[in-house]
């Protein structure tokens, strides 16, 4: 039975202070707080946490903290630079989806995620071009051994030109629990098995990048199990003129992609 009016807590992962106020109801959580001086009221180094792994896990250290320490029937995570919007070309503070709107969507859906983006190449090709493809090959082998039912979804996700990035979501507590229970052993395996000592700083964010791809795998595998809502997400632009220029550019890009098919 759908529960209406259920509490939603939306958190914002941030690794540094921001110059703007959080949108109404959004709560900032300092990511990687175990490694740096504190600047936020909420930090990911309290309770059950993996804060020290943030340089590799990225916003997943905050998602883990939410999973283990926040007692709310609905929870969500966005990034300090990226939020859910009503339209794909929106990017200003005032256009960020409010908690009431997201909560209303969760009255009829189990999880809210970013709208898939289509690229000119496959997800695998993009990963191979930007990262180290051997790491995803290692993950496939591990999944084949320990979670073989997910291999068709893995191959579909990596072979697709459409994907969701940024590890952002809003979901019922039981749905988040199902996802995190599945993905954390895989991410921990990647962290413990892959030597990143020779990687550049960008690619040392290994687990965060792998998590983005595995989130798509999980969504494909459970597409018939959960009611999934897709929302546009975008990088926040501060300043009226900058936001307007960015919105017009994104609107044009959106139209171009639709015309391309």
UniProtKB/TrEMBL annotation:
Pfam family name, one: DUF4422
Domain DUF4422: 9-221
Name used for this protein in its record: DUF4422 domain-containing protein
Organism: Bifidobacterium primatium
Source lineage: Bacteria, Bacillati, Actinomycetota, Actinomycetes, Bifidobacteriales
């Amino acid at each position: 039975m759908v529960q209406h009016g259920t509490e939603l807590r939306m958190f914002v992962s941030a690794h540094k202070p921001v110059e703007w106020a959080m949108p109404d109801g959004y709560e900032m959580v300092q990511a990687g707080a175990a490694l740096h001086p504190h600047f936020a009221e909420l930090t990911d180094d309290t309770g059950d946490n993996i804060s020290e792994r943030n340089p590799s896990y990225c916003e997943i250290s905050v998602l883990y903290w939410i999973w283990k320490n926040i007692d709310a029937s609905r929870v969500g995570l966005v990034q300090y630079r990226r939020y859910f919007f009503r339209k794909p070309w929106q990017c200003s503070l005032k256009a960020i989806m409010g908690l009431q709107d997201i909560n209303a969507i969760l009255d009829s859906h189990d999880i809210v995620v970013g709208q898939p983006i289509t690229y000119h190449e496959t997800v695998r090709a993009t990963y191979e071009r930007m990262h180290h493809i051997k790491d995803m090959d290692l993950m496939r082998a591990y999944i084949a051994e320990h979670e073989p039912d997910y291999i068709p979804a893995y191959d579909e996700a990596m072979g697709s030109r459409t994907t969701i990035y940024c590890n952002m979501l809003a979901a019922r507590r039981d749905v988040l629990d199902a996802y995190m229970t599945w993905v954390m052993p895989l991410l921990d395996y990647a962290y413990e098995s892959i030597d990143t000592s020779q990687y550049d700083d960008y690619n040392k964010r290994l687990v965060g990048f792998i998590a983005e791809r595995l989130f798509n795998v999980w969504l494909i595998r459970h597409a018939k199990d959960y009611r999934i809502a897709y929302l546009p997400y975008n990088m926040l632009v501060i300043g009226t003129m900058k936001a307007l220029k960015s919105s017009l550019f994104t609107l044009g890009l959106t139209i171009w992609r639709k015309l391309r098919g």
